[in-house]
Amino acid sequence: MLAAVDEAAALAGLAPGMPLAGAHALAPDLETAPHDPQGDAAALARLAVWCEGYSPWTASDGLELGGAAGLRLDVTGCAHLFGGERALLADLEAWLGGRGFAARAALAETLGGAWALARFGPAASPGGDPTAGDGAGRLVPPGGLRAALAPLPPAALRLPAETCELLARLGLRRIGDLLELPPAVLAPRFGPLLARRLGQALGTEAEPLAPGAPPPPPEVRRSFAEPIATPEDLARALASLSANLCERLEAAGLGARRLVLTALRVDGGRQGLSLGTSRPRRDPDHLASLFRDRLERLDPGFGIEAMTLRAASVEPLDLCQKNILSEYVSGDSESKISDLIDRLTSRLGAGAVYGLVPCASHLPERAAAAGRALEALEAFGAPQSCRPSWRRGQPRPLRLFDPPQPVEALALLPDHPPERFRWRRLQHRVVRAEGPERLVGEWWGDADTPAKSGMVPEPETRDYFRVEDEDGRRYWLFRQVCDGAGDWFLHGLFA
Amino acid sequence: MPTAQSGRGTTRPKATLTELRARIRALERGWERGQAPHDPAWSDPVAPGTVPPGIMPLGVPAIDSHLPDGGLRLAGLHEIAGLREEWDDAVVASFCLALLGRLAETGPILWAARRPDLYGPGVAGLMGPDVDSAPTEGAGGFSPGRLILVRARRDAEVLWALEEGLRAPVAQHGGVVLSAVVGEVGEPGDTALRRLQLAAEAAGRPCFVLCRRLFAGGVGTTASATAVALTRWRVGALPSMGPSVGPSAETELPGRPRWRLDLLRCRGAAPGSFTVEWDDATGDFALAAPVRDRPVAQETAARRRAG
């Protein structure tokens, strides 16, 4: 039996529900594939997630509702981002079409109305302009829902097949016929479902859209028979929690990147500790040891009655065979380093441990970025062809002031190095100098560069000088290049 | 790092033998835990030309011969301070980087500081034109990628991070975790320094403490603060002797950096003072000629200006 047909098959006279033999008789070269409802549902759910580019509130329709499978998007407040509702529909159809899905989109005030129009609505806009695309005809202006639904068959109301047959036998072939009848007549004859669907389509009855929820983060909880307060008890509870959490993570093939420990006190208080790890981990001892130093920050008060440990952020971590000989055989230095980084981070705070990563920028303060320490190390250990390289050539200072420190300097000519400058209330006489080296910021520029009136903001331009004073101290000075003479700044110290 | 391991194992069989001999002797004499295994008292008299294990020569014969072991003893604490407040911060860091660059091990280095102003391109440029393309085995190789930087708020946190780094478990079978730890602090206390010295000795790895805010008049620092570290250095910049072609007639180009290195304290050696010149191209220093000094340079400059 056929479960679904595509457009060409429908033109050949095939329809869902037709026996396969009959279908082959009608179209001998018919290509068929086995029906896979679960696969379809999963693909539809994935599509619903993809559609989050159009609206944050998306869900997939069930397949059992009769008509073709569908997606529901609540685009309230989203349409203007795509240039209006009409453009949004056209864009959505084109986007789905580009991915090989034959799709019809409709937009109405209610979920039921849009459902009906998408499946039973006009194929093209009757009076609209032909360039607007198919979606235009299924766009219902506010207040026009009743008129738009009236010519559609009752099946558009998401009714079971029996009800539709009964309505057809009674001569009620359009929704308009139903709307003319008083609602009190419908319910006793056709059951409560018809009245509800009608109400949902017209918006007199609420129908919420339930989006597919993301899977919750792994969490374990432990309640204590007696409230606990001593540090030893807390440490024991922590050890058992982290062991349980790691089992959960191992089953899911995940490793924790961020952990939140929550303690619930008997007096209703609630305290949390959170920390991050430098790479996905699921080693109970390590996770427990990261929290151990910070357990003292928990104030147990009259006692803690429950603790939860949640892996707030997880990353895939492949299963790996634990090597019982690893202590003796391999120098597992990378994991030791990441243990150390975790310990430092958990005490000094997130972002306190970092590595230097080169960046392609001419502005000196942007040429080095703070990257994750472990990544910087990995990049260093990588083969040299794919290792990030530092820009060389011109000498660069060893210490960089951020932000550059303003100095009072005196230069004889605009592009000459300064004769003397004053920094921290001390006068320095320049004996040797090199420069200028002109460095220009990126043309795509800063948002914070003050824009001159009516002009595109210029990228920052600086003339750098390497100077040495009488005592041999070497400085990196620059002068901002703007109209005339700019201000002088001290940006770094050389070795 | 496995590369460091293999290089160490194959190129220095003699060193390993010496070390083993020293350990056996130490065991025979009742060597206890906590005492440095490389104590020169336990080992064989050093043959001229060879470097005992755990000792890193600086590559400048005048300094190496001045130091008791023919170089810096690695397992321990070394203090480096600036000659003048603030202005010599860069020299302090570069002298430390120069020492780190001579380390045989190429593992990562922990660098804890209170102010994150170490500049990556500067570090890369200091150590020769292209250390990234050259193999990083052995002395002279240094890339900013080796640094694990730690930003701390207080001196105590810097010192804690250093100790944590020194006490990090060493992977078995010789895998080196950290080659060295470096901390920039204001004024470390004696107790903290002693703890670090013990931890560094136990770990067999060097620990460099950079004192960044010396008193303005603290040229001769108090003796009590110096009793702990293996060596205590005071470094400062000196006027360079550059090529005499400048952009204008009045100014000359800055030359190679020249540093004054004062060895204030060293176990088993007298204090000393050295003048070295740093070469960016090779990433190494050499003893500068002591006769050329400021007045001469000024004189030549003046003569050139006149002529």
What is the strand arrangement across the widest sheet of chain A?
9-10-11-12-13-14
Q: Which oligomerization state do the chains in this entry correspond to?
A: heterodimer
List low-confidence stretches of chain B.
1-9, 29-48, 131-140, 214-224, 290-302
What distance separates the N and C termini of chain A?
A: 82 Å
Query: What pair of chains forms the biggest interface?
Result: A-B, 70 and 78 residues
Fraction of residues in H or I helices of chain A? 25-40%
On the 0 to 100 scale, the average pLDDT of chain A is 79
Radius of gyration of chain A: 35 Å
Helix content of chain B: 25-40%
Following the backbone from N to C, one meets helices and strands of chain B in this order, namely: HHEHEEHEHEHEHEEEEEH
Strand order of the largest sheet of chain B: 5-4-6-7-3-8-9-10-11
How many beta-strand elements of chain B?
A: 11
Question: What gap, in angstroms, lies between the N and C termini of chain B?
Answer: 58 Å
Write the CATH architecture name of chain B: 3-Layer(aba) Sandwich
Number of helical segments of chain B? Answer: 8
Chain-averaged pLDDT of chain B = 71
Question: Largest sheet of chain A, if any?
Answer: 6 strands, antiparallel, barrel
Q: Give the strand tally of chain A.
A: 14
Provide the domain count of chain B. Answer: 1
Sheet having the most strands of chain B: 9 strands, mixed
Determine the strand fraction of chain A and express it as a percent band: 15-25%
Helices and strands, with pairings:
The complex is a heterodimer of chains A (495) and B (307).
Chain A: H1 7-11, H2 20-26, H3 37-50, E1 58-60, E2 71-73, H4 85-98, H5 111-120, H6 145-149, H7 161-169, H8 175-180, H9 183-190, H10 192-202, E3 219-228, H11 231-252, E4 254-265, E5 270-281, H12 284-292, E6 304-316, H13 326-329, H14 333-348, E7 353-358, E8 368-372, H15 373-381, E9 399-411, E10 418-423, E11 426-440, E12 461-469, E13 474-480, E14 488-493
Antiparallel strand pairs in A: 1-2, 3-6, 4-5, 4-6, 7-8, 9-10, 9-14, 10-11, 11-12, 12-13, 13-14
Chain B: H1 2-11, H2 13-28, E1 55-56, H3 61-66, E2 72-73, E3 76-82, H4 89-101, E4 109-113, H5 120-126, E5 147-151, H6 155-167, E6 180-185, H7 190-203, E7 206-211, E8 231-238, E9 258-266, E10 272-279, E11 284-287, H8 294-306
Parallel strand pairs in B: 3-7, 3-8, 4-5, 4-6, 6-7
Antiparallel strand pairs in B: 1-2, 8-9, 9-10, 10-11
Helix pairs in contact in B: 6-7
